[in-house]
Specification:
- Strand 1 and strand 2 form a beta hairpin.
- Helix 6 packs across helix 12 and helix 11 packs across helix 13.
- By secondary structure, this protein is mainly α.
- It has a two-stranded antiparallel ribbon.
């Protein structure tokens, strides 16, 4: 009987059912949520990669509070390279303009060409603000601020859930996400481009209000966006092409779309569309930035998917050729006349000319005593 054993899968890291009915998890997650809200109101939203990582890691510890510490340290080990990559991405993006004037007019012309027949010759950002922007907060201003903030949370939170449930898919997710970020960063250096609010400040457009974070005022949370607002002030204005805000939103949706029931597809696909509206309405991006970002998402899935399939095929060829190369050639058996013959079959029949031992025999003859 052959016994087939599966190798231990590194993907499943979710904890077993808690014997106390999950009360420990509820208490731990409640403590985490209270601490998160307190830090949010006192410090600001976790938009910095290192700051966001601390809260995500604390959330996984609270969710798996019955796990040993080596499991939580494994999360830190896997995620430290990701955090360092994002930190390097944020720092290097500030040098993308290299002191040169960023591109702006080409983006204005592109948006006017695509939508000027609807907007009366204006770029969509100006047209939306002319029709929707008011000094008093509107409900869509609040929704836009939440959607804008989700850019800094959704992609990382989805990665954390994948790490907890299936580390193999988590690795596939991070390979694609890393490629997408690297492609966007390379474009910032090759083609530094400025958003609509920058064009308005430099006289290329009429007045554009940068209103992506004004929705927090509706809740009296003036300090909720402190970190986000500080990041906007210090950010380099040339990181507009492509729009990684919408690229990340579409990337997360497409990665999980094939494993989601079709009745939920419209809700999922509404997320990148809501992000697109938010960025264009708030003066952060042109529509052409969004379309190029979506194109980068498709390119990411294509290139990384082909690379993974090529690597898998290469490993399969190596695995298939290794046993054949290691296997020794069959031993040549020569007959009495010195000519080569087929290998002699393995048998317990005695050699020719020698008596069979007592008590032995072949499979088709009974044993014969030696003195007979």
């Amino acid at each position: 009987m052959a016994v087939v054993t599966d190798p231990q899968s590194p993907a499943r890291t979710d904890p077993p059912a808690s014997p106390d009915g999950g009360r420990r998890r509820i208490v731990a997650m409640t403590i985490w949520a209270v601490a998160f809200v307190a830090a949010w109101l006192g410090i600001g939203l976790p938009t910095d990669p290192a700051y966001a990582f601390v809260w995500i890691w604390a959330g996984t510890i609270a969710w798996n509070s019955d796990r040993p510490w080596r499991s939580h340290l494994r999360f830190a080990r896997d995620w430290v390279p990701v955090v360092l990559l994002l930190a390097a991405y944020n720092l290097s993006r500030g040098f993308a303009d290299n002191g040169a004037t960023p591109h702006a007019m080409e983006l204005i012309v592109a948006d006017r060409f695509m939508f000027g027949w609807v907007t009366g010759g204006e770029v969509p950002t100006i047209w939306l603000q002319q029709h929707l922007y008011h000094p008093q907060l509107q409900w869509y201003d609040i929704a836009a601020s939440w959607v804008y903030f989700s850019h800094f949370v959704v992609a990382l939170a989805a990665a954390a859930v994948l790490w907890l449930r299936d580390r193999h898919r988590w690795a596939a997710y991070m390979r694609r996400w890393g490629f997408l970020c690297a492609a966007g960063l390379a474009t910032y250096f090759i083609y530094p481009a400025a958003p609509p609010w920058w064009a308005a400040q430099n006289g290329l457009l009429t007045e554009v209000a940068r209103i992506s974070t004004r929705g927090w005022k509706a809740f009296g949370m003036h300090g909720a966006g402190n970190v986000l607002n500080a990041g906007q002030i210090a950010s380099n204005p040339v990181a507009a092409m492509p729009s990684l805000h919408t690229a990340w939103a579409l990337f997360v949706v497409l990665f999980f779309l094939h494993t989601t029931r079709r009745r939920w597809w419209p809700l999922l696909l509404a997320y990148p569309l809501a992000m697109t509206f938010t960025l264009v309405y708030s003066g952060e991006h042109y529509v052409i930035d969004v379309l190029v970002g979506w194109m980068y998402v498709g390119l990411t899935f294509l290139v990384v998917g082909l690379a993974e399939r090529g690597w898998a095929a290469l490993r399969a060829r190596r695995a298939g050729s290794a046993p054949a190369a290691a296997e020794p050639p069959p031993e040549k058996i020569t007959g009495p006349d010195g000519t080569a013959g087929p290998p002699e079959p393995t048998s317990d029949r005695p050699a020719s000319g020698q008596p069979a031992p007592v008590g032995t025999g072949t499979s088709d003859q009974p044993a014969v005593p030696a003195d007979r």
